[in-house]
Amino acid sequence: MLPIEFVDSHTAGEPTRVILSGGPNLGSGPLAERLERLATEHDAFRSAVINEPRGSDVLVGALLLEPPDPTCAAGVIFFNNVGYLGMCGHGTIGVMATLAHLGRLQAGQHCIETPVGSVQATLHANAEVSIENVVSYRYRRNLQVPVPGVGTVNGDIAWGGNWFFLVDGSPVELTPGNSDKLTEYAWAIRSALQQQKITGADAAEIDHIEISTPSRTADSRNFVLCPGKAYDRSPCGTGTSAKLACLAADGRLAPGQIWRQEGILGTAFTGSYRMQNGSTDTIVPSITGRAYITAHGHLLLEPEDPFRDGIRI
Ligand code: PYC
Asked: CATH number, domain at 234?
């Protein structure tokens, strides 16, 4: 029984579990290929380290790997209670804080490789981390989607490292106390998108729903429902990137202008963007936030444990 070494952290309230060692051998190929191998041959490992009784639905996992690009500080595959994530903003901030905690990283800019591309991450002297995310863009604007039991919902589809359906306005206030109602609302939207075969580019499933409202203390407040029906406790790094892409495409935010995105707990990320090809149609978003280390230990998978591979519902 090999122990699995991990470091837990939270970024603006959203937890990340970085797996340092004890993972399956995924070879040394491109990270997209290694993700495919993890998903098809070792999915029980994902479930064992992230699901109850060792984890929870809210936890996002980050499997630390040797990066194919030797100039990068680390390669990472992100996953959650039901599957895999292309990129994860809060998770990348958690990975950077973890590497700094372990003394493997000094302040400055570092490259982190993910299955959907490399991101540049800067560890600041005050322990904040800025990530320059993957190229982000709005795919479709102002879609009118009939949602059973809800009515017609208008929204945009955008890529920020994951696929998002972004809705402005909410039937209830975005507060933690309304999280059950918000989850039900967002899940109904996600189900309607699936039923109506509304997808991202290349028929990609839209598995994140982002509801935004005005905020008293930031530029916007959001509630983001993740693929496994857990809501993001942070303002969601990839969700903020998708939001910036929509604001840029609408001409509502200029390159370099600061956007403060608040999440459901009232914690915030600072965002801005630069144009990718001299146009606001495709942008490179930058997200800044901070993670705090909460645990460093070993997970054990006893062979006789009936929940060795986690509780899968
Ligand atoms: O911060 O990008 C993010 C994220 C995605 C899912 C949960 N957090």
From this structure: 3.10.310.10
